[in-house]
Amino acid sequence: MPIWENCTNRKVRSYDRAEMLRDIAFLNALYNWLSGRK
């Protein structure tokens, strides 16, 4: 469960593997972009 969804009701829907992989890919791309700006 991502940090920004911790305040939501976890019973509404499950946080599945596809969403986890998407978020990891997004955060990885964001990290790489920020690292490349130095």
What would your notes on this structure say?
With 38 residues, the protein is an all-alpha fold. The chain has a domain at 14-38. 50% of the residues lie in helices and 0% in strands. The chain has one helix at residues 17-35. The model has no long low-confidence stretch (mean pLDDT 77).
Task: Tell me the layout of helices and strands.
Blueprint: H1 17-35
Helix coverage percent of residues?
Answer: 40-55%
Number of strands: 0
How big is the Rg?
13 Å
Write down the oligomeric state. single chain
Number of separate helices: 1
Distance between the termini: 30 Å
Overall residue-averaged pLDDT value: 77
Low-confidence stretches: none
Succession of helices and strands: H
For the report, how would you describe the main beta sheet?
A: none
Shape field: rod-shaped
- Decide which structural class fits the backbone: mainly alpha
Report the portion of residues in β strands. Answer: under 5%
What's this model, at a glance?
With 38 residues, this protein is mostly helical. It has one helix at 17-35. The mean pLDDT is 77.
Task: Please give a handful of descriptors for the protein shown.
38 residues; mainly alpha; 1 helix
